[in-house]
């Protein structure tokens, strides 16, 4: 009997171990869609399987960690009444608080290698691992079949997976870029129909065409700021030929001082030569227009890549980090939320991402990512100036400019467009979905362009491609003037300023004539000349808030900053930053806190530190002295954090942590299914108890079998469930782990004058 029972118990252990193995190997679906609708509904007929030996390059993207905390942080970051207003994070701070854990990142790298994929790029800061592999390897790793289909609207085939990918990991991934080439990115410039008479212009370039410097003169006038000390980042899907940029400046009789530096984000070539069949028209337009508005910027970085996630990952994690970004391309991912993590990341880091609204009239199809709530969408106008290289004279809506809303992408209206008066019956905007554009600038066929080392053209190219980098140059000038860490989603400030009637009248050109009706018969006109949106007084879906009188806008912008940091009430303010802390369990560590005077603030700042961790609030404490800040200077204070109850009881002047809104930034164990390494103690105890009972009664055999089966089923049901951290602590020490803390500084004489920042405490 004992032998039978022993055999039975060993069988139980083996079965539980098998359940444990299943739990670890359970495939996880991804958090975004990958299968194209055309392959699901049969509009794209199957052609053949993709050759098994063909090599593909993929970007495997990990999800945001602590998404709800990020959502709350973003709300406070753009709320002028919050102490965290414009308290932007560094790349490293974002990664520590919201990026993938090191454990999950390392697990993904190991997963790729184990499944025969070569890791060729990516970083934890960029939230992605870039891999290459054969089709056969990719199919095995992600449980898909790669097929070739006939494109439903274009004369070409494309490859794509037959089903949604899954991965054998104990946590979910966000997205895999590169599994299909259904949608090819395209630039948002267009060539004029040469049968139509060219538009007369008052530019200073050849044939009276507009140069980038003319846009600076029209919108900024004789302002002296140039964007000195700032960098501009451009999103491009192909490289460029610097010879075209140099030819442009030579023919315009101007000197370029800004460096132009190409950055390959995924191995894509930085060279784009006409003789090799590569067209660099868009790339040259973007460089010359951005530098034309802000000629004193240090560097124009050209981020080149083959996928959206590769480019955006690099733009949001580079060093130095460019605070003003511009995209004049459109692409269509299978899931409109694909790039959300990167746009949210940029928003927390103070980066302003400007996106062209398109050149096909009202949005009857997706013009992604123009509708994203975290980008600033730029529309087009038809500009007249009073003279060559002269000031603004008049402006109307450009008939080909993109705008409207696209309900199918289901991108909801952001808070800044819910301001009273923005959406009304006159402009026909949506109160449910994101509307575009936000602002506009000249996009008519009135520009001078050099490309492909063939010939330069005048008054032949136009598009919101020209308008978008102009605004990136403007934000560079604002950041120069404010010596700022960025403006982030500048739409929040633009709409706030426009809500004041006097500010709107001085800082914006309210464009009330024309509409975004594309030219009937043009190959790029999606609706045969129909026009949904006419320019109206105030906001409209042809020009947004209009174009800007940049000098007045900048002056109003500086005065609009409120809250704890970012720049400037009339009485001054201050900003905070703090270094992260790493300690051994039970010991103490220090953080250097910097208090920066803004607009000549002078005063004394006291501090409070917030945590919601029960362990930290129970066993930890901190000490920090006040900081005396002189006008225009930076003061420092030393924050000491103690992680032992015994140490806290002996520290003079120690403070307990406040129990506020901060949340623990724990490792992935707190948010993802852990790898089970042993049979739960409760199950082992159950088996032991039943063994004792069995010795007293053979009838217990059937009871034993039933109860153990229930235990096994309960254990199996727990596959993939989340548990707390597996680390433990002594009874008087803070538990090992990673904690996100909130430090708030308050002026000792004016309690409403505050600033906040976050730091990470790591207890090893």
Protein model, in words:
It contains 19 helices and 33 strands. Strands 12, 13, 14, 15, 17, 18, 19 and 20 form an eight-stranded mixed β-sheet that branches. 27% of the residues lie in helices and 22% in strands. The radius of gyration is 29 Å and the shape is globular. Helix 1 (2-25) packs parallel to helix 19 and helix 7 (212-220) packs parallel to helix 9 (281-293).
Task: Pick out its properties.
764 residues; alpha+beta; eight-stranded mixed beta sheet; five-stranded mixed beta sheet; 19 helices; 33 strands
Which secondary structure elements does this structure contain, and how are they paired or packed?
Elements: H1 2-25, E1 28-29, H2 37-40, E2 46-49, E3 55-61, H3 67-77, H4 91-98, H5 102-114, E4 118-123, E5 128-134, H6 135-142, E6 146-150, E7 157-161, E8 166-167, E9 175-177, E10 186-187, E11 190-191, H7 212-220, E12 231-236, H8 242-251, E13 259-264, H9 281-293, E14 299-304, H10 308-315, E15 324-327, E16 329-330, H11 340-348, E17 352-356, E18 376-385, E19 392-397, E20 439-442, E21 447-449, E22 457-462, H12 464-482, H13 491-498, H14 501-507, E23 508-509, E24 547-548, H15 550-560, E25 573-578, E26 581-583, E27 588-598, E28 603-610, H16 614-619, E29 621-623, E30 627-629, E31 634-642, H17 645-649, H18 681-696, H19 700-717, E32 737-747, E33 754-763
Parallel strand pairs: 12-14, 12-15, 13-14, 15-17, 17-18, 18-20, 26-33
Antiparallel strand pairs: 1-8, 2-6, 3-5, 3-9, 4-5, 6-7, 10-16, 11-22, 18-19, 21-22, 23-24, 25-27, 27-31, 28-30, 28-32, 29-31, 32-33
């Amino acid at each position: 009997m004992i032998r039978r029972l022993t055999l039975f118990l060993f069988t139980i252990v083996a079965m539980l171990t098998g359940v444990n193995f299943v739990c670890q190997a359970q495939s996880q679906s991804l958090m975004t869609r990958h299968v194209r609708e055309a392959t699901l509904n049969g509009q794209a007929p199957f052609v053949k399987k993709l050759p098994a030996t063909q090599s593909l390059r993929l970007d495997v993207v990990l999800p945001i960690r602590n998404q709800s905390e990020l959502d709350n942080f973003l709300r406070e970051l753009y709320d002028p009444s919050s102490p965290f207003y414009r308290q932007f994070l560094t790349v490293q701070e974002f990664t520590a608080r919201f990026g993938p854990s090191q454990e999950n990142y390392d697990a993904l790298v190991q997963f790729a290698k184990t499944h025969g994929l070569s890791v060729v790029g990516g970083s934890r800061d960029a939230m992605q691992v870039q891999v290459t592999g054969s089709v056969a390897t990719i199919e095995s790793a992600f449980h898909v079949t790669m097929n070739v289909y006939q494109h439903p609207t274009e004369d070409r085939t494309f490859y794509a997976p037959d089903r949604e990918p899954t991965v054998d990991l104990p946590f979910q991934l966000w997205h895999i870029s590169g599994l299909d080439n259904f949608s090819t990115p395209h630039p948002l410039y267009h060539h004029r129909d040469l049968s139509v008479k060219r538009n007369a212009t008052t530019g200073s370039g050849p044939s009276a065409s507009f140069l980038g410097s003319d846009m600076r003169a029209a919108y900024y006038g004789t302002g002296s700021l140039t964007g000195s000390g700032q960098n501009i980042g451009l999103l491009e899907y192909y490289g460029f030929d610097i010879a075209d940029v140099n030819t442009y400046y030579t023919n315009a009789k101007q000197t370029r001082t800004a460096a132009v530096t190409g950055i390959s984000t995924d191995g894509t070539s930085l060279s784009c030569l006409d003789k090799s069949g590569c067209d660099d028209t868009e790339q040259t337009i973007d460089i010359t227009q951005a530098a034309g508005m802000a000629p004193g910027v240090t560097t124009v970085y050209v981020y080149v890549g083959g996928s959206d996630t590769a480019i955006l990952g690099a733009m949001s994690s580079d060093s130095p980090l460019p605070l003003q970004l511009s995209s004049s391309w459109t692409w269509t991912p299978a899931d409109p939320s694909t790039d959300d993590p990167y746009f949210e990341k940029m928003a927390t880091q103070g980066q302003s991402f400007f996106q062209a609204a398109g050149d096909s009239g009202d949005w009857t199809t997706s013009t992604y990512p123009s509708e994203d709530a975290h980008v600033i969408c730029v529309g087009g106008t038809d500009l007249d100036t009073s003279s060559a290289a002269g000031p603004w004279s008049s402006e109307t809506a450009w008939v080909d400019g993109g705008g409207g809303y696209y309900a199918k992408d289901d991108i909801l209206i952001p808070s800044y467009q819910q301001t009273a008066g923005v959406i009304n019956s006159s402009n026909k905007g949506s109160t449910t979905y994101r509307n575009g554009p936000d602002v506009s600038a000249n996009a008519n066929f009135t520009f001078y362009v050099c490309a492909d080392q063939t010939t330069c053209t005048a008054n032949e190219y136009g598009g919101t491609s020209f308008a978008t980098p102009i605004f990136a140059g403007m934000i560079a000038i604002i950041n120069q003037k404010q010596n700022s860490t960025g403006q982030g989603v500048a739409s929040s400030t633009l709409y706030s300023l426009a809500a004041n009637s006097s500010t709107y009248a001085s800082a914006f050109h309210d464009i009330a004539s024309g509409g975004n009706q594309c030219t009937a018969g043009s190959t790029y006109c999606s609706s045969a000349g129909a026009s949904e949106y006419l320019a109206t007084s105030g906001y409209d879906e042809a020009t947004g808030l209009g174009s800007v009188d940049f000098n007045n806008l900048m002056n109003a912008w500086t005065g609009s900053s409120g809250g704890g940091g970012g720049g400037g009430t009339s009485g001054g303010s201050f900003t905070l930053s703090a270094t992260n802390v790493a300690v051994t369990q039970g010991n103490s560590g220090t953080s250097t806190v910097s208090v920066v005077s803004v607009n000549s603030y002078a005063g004394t700042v006291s501090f409070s530190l917030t945590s919601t961790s029960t362990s930290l609030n129970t066993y930890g404490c901190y000490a920090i002295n006040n900081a005396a800040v002189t006008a225009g200077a930076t003061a420092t204070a030393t924050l000491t954090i103690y992680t032992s109850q015994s140490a806290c009881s002996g520290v003079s002047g120690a403070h307990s942590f406040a129990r506020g809104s901060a949340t623990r930034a724990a490792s992935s164990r707190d948010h993802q299914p852990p790898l089970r390494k042993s049979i739960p103690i409760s199950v082992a105890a159950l088996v032991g108890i039943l063994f004792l009972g069995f010795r007293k009664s053979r009838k217990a055999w059937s009871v034993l079998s039933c109860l153990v089966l229930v235990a096994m089923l309960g254990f199996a049901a727990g596959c993939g469930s989340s548990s707390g951290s597996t680390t433990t602590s002594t009874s008087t020490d803070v538990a090992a782990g990673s904690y996100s803390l909130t430090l708030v500084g308050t002026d000792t004489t004016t309690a409403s004058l505050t600033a906040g920042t976050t730091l990470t405490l790591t207890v090893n």
